[in-house]
Amino acid sequence: IMPAGEYRNTIVNLEVASPPARRIYLVAEAGYQGFWTGTRTDISGSMTVRPYPGINLTGDWQRSVVDLAEGSFSTDLFRFRGNVDLTPNISFTSIVQYDNLSELVGFYQRMRWIIRPGADLFLVYSMNWLNEEDRLRPLETSGGIKLTYTFRF
Hints:
The protein is mostly beta strands.
């Protein structure tokens, strides 16, 4: 538990990236900041591949090292994201991620249909698993439908 009080943090980040318009896009980032009663150091990298127009595949890794007066810990987050634009109005996004601290694996799938400008339909499905004894145990499954509509007057 963090003690009550006022906390001020300074953040320093450094990012190196290749041109985002390229077929393969690379990013490396490092950051250091104050974090509650201590510090946090982040190192991350990502690579996006665009094999064909309308298809984007991205792999990310982020390591956070947190040193607090109350103790220290580190986390690794791995994420894969895929985007497919079937048409200018229909797209699919999928995300799979895992972090070693909670040992949770998450899956997220979204379909977006732009019916017309200002009117979108979203279909969403997600599922989470817990990594227990080198086996994945399902924790939660959910789905949703969202319709947005803009009224202009």
